């Protein structure tokens, strides 16, 4: 059952300072950073590059919508990755799936950097782009759950939130690297940038993945999984168990995760495209997006520490309320069409996102028992990624278009979605004092 709240002694190490634990946290962080570099590099390129490289025959509004549609394909694939990798992660272990997911991501990202444009290959280029984006989505769908669980299942009970956050800290670090790399490439003259310059950051994935694999192969398997390994081999299929025994937690966890992912979709993807369309300088916008990743990183780190002291739910609720209050100011700042306005919007927006992101990994992991923790937490996070971030840029573009360029309709829909997320956070179980080994 999901009602066990006992604060039983943990069966985990007593410190985060040992060499093995440091290696685990480094692996969790580096692996996620590399995976999200690849994944968010595509998101940034979809806002700035792909409308001109793959959809140049369309008018600017339709080209942006089409580029965001290919972006959404990766988010749609993320739950599939969470399901597939979660199944094997719950059955045969966390470590093996992490190596596989990183290889898949690196190969897909490198191939995107080698794709011909539609001017060279016609619609075949778009088909290949979508297929590679789907592979990216499947890979990152497996990465997050494995990286988070390797950390949280090694960590002491009083520091689980902080340890689990290293998988989430990889997201802003990867976003920073992606935005910075594409920003540097954008300094080239437009003809060179849109011809070959944008490809360089994608090709750099080969080097990053090599570094990540070197670190990851040295990490030990989760002690909690080893403890339940024989049991895991004889239980029902993990997805069946999640759906039949833990449906409430699956729904609540997904809704809570959606809150921060709508901020990601609007502030770090749609807003980039909209600000540039409104007249803001492309390089200035990309530089601001890179700086905002630092705000996201720091806010995530601080809120993860706080959630170990005050609990997951209070921090999550505070972050969602802050997002609701800042929704319209963010949209108005982006609408101004200035780099300064965009900078304030994305810095504050991603800072609020970090407040939610910090406790989120531990919150989701503590909803499920060890035998299905990979599958359950991955489905929550990756399902939320599809609903909260994958379709958000395209929906935002459609709502602004339907409103004749205004942001009133978009703001109202966004606040309404966040209100549902807030209710889910209020109803969910607080897991700070739960013993991971005793959750059933």
TrEMBL record:
Keywords: Cell membrane, Membrane, Transmembrane, Transmembrane helix, Transport. It comes from the Bacteria. The chain crosses the membrane at residues 24-50, 62-85, 97-115, 121-141, 162-184, 196-217, 250-270, 290-307, 314-334, 340-367, 379-401, 407-428. Residues 24-429 form the Major facilitator superfamily (MFS) profile domain. One of its GO terms (molecular function) is transmembrane transporter activity. SUPFAM superfamilies: MFS general substrate transporter (SSF103473). Pfam families: MFS_1. GO terms for cellular component: plasma membrane. The keyword Transferase does not apply. It is a multi-pass membrane protein. The keyword Cell membrane applies. PANTHER family: SHIKIMATE TRANSPORTER. This is MFS transporter. The lineage of its organism: Bacteria, Bacillati, Actinomycetota, Actinomycetes, Pseudonocardiales.
């Amino acid at each position: 059952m999901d009602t066990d709240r006992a604060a039983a002694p943990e069966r985990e190490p007593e410190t985060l300072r040992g060499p093995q634990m440091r290696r685990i946290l480094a692996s969790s962080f580096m692996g996620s950073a590399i995976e999200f570099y690849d994944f968010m590099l595509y998101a940034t390129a979809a806002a700035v590059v792909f409308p001109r490289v793959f959809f140049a025959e369309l008018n600017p509004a339709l080209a942006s919508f089409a580029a965001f549609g290919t972006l959404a394909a990766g988010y749609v694939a993320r739950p599939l990755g969470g399901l597939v990798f979660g199944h094997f992660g719950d059955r045969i272990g966390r470590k093996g799936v992490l190596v596989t997911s990183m290889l898949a991501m690196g190969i897909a990202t490198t191939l995107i950097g080698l794709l011909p444009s539609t001017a060279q290959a016609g619609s075949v280029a778009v088909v290949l782009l979508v297929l590679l984006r789907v592979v990216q989505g499947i890979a990152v769908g497996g990465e997050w759950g494995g990286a988070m669980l390797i950390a949280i299942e090694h960590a002491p009970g009083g520091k689980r939130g902080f340890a689990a956050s290293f998988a989430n800290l990889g997201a802003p670090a990867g976003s920073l690297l992606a935005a910075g790399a594409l920003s540097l490439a954008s300094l080239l003259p437009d003809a060179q940038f849109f011809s070959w310059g944008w490809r360089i950051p994608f090709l750099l994935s080969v080097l990053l993945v090599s570094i990540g694999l070197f670190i990851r192969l040295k990490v030990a398997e989760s002690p909690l999984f080893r403890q339940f390994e024989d049991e895991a081999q004889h239980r029902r299929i993990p997805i069946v168990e999640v759906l039949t025994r833990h449906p409430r937690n699956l729904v609540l966890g997904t809704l809570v995760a959606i809150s921060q992912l709508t901020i990601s979709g609007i502030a770090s993807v749609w807003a980039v495209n909209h600000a540039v369309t409104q007249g803001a300088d492309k390089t200035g916008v990309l530089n601001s997006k890179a700086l905002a990743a630092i705000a996201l990183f720091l806010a995530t780190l601080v809120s993860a520490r706080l959630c170990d002291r005050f609990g997951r739910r209070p921090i999550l609720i505070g972050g969602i309320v802050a997002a609701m209050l800042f929704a319209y100011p963010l949209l108005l700042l982006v609408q101004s069409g200035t780099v300064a306005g965009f900078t304030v919007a994305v810095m504050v927006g991603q800072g609020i996102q970090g407040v939610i992101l910090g406790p989120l990994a531990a919150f989701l992991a503590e909803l499920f028992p060890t035998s299905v923790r990979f599958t359950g937490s991955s489905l929550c996070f990756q399902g939320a990624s599809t609903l909260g971030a994958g379709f958000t840029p395209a929906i935002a573009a459609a709502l602004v278009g339907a409103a004749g360029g205004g942001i009133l309709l978009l703001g109202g829909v966004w606040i309404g979605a966040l209100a549902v997320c807030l209710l889910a956070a209020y109803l969910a179980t607080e897991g700070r004092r739960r013993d991971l080994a005793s959750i059933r």
